[in-house]
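User: Reviewer 2 asked us to show a designed sequence for the structure in our supplementary figure. I'm pasting the structure tokens here. Could you produce the per-position amino acids so we can include them in the response letter?
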């Protein structure tokens, strides 16, 4: 049975998935910040710093997508797409940095 057209926007499955991704990104950010503070000043600090920044960009992108889907404001999905691209690039740079230190 399909969803009725008058359903509340935050009850739709894509919006719920975006909320779950946002919650997961917040949890990963908390862990990354904790680990970054543990290795601060060490050789692994730069990699974890890149991951912290990448989780910030992922969270900001999810907030933009949710705001667009819930009609809070219209900034466009292109901005979120660019933030997702930056997130992946930062994850990759953090991974390369950590691999370089550990090898």
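Assistant: Here is a per-position design you can include in the supplement:
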């Amino acid at each position: 049975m399909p969803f009725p057209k008058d359903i509340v926007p935050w009850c739709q499955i894509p919006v719920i998935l975006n909320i779950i991704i946002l919650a997961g990104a917040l949890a990963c950010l908390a862990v990354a910040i904790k680990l970054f503070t543990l290795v601060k000043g060490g050789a692994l600090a730069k990699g974890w710093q890149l991951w912290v920044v990448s989780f910030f960009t992922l969270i900001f992108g999810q907030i933009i997508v949710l705001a667009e889907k819930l009609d809070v404001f219209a900034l466009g999905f292109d901005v979120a797409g660019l933030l997702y691209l930056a997130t992946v690039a930062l994850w990759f740079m953090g991974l390369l940095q950590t691999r370089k230190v550990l090898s």
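For the response letter, you might also mention the following. Residues 13-102 form one domain. The helical segments are 13-38, 45-69, 77-102.
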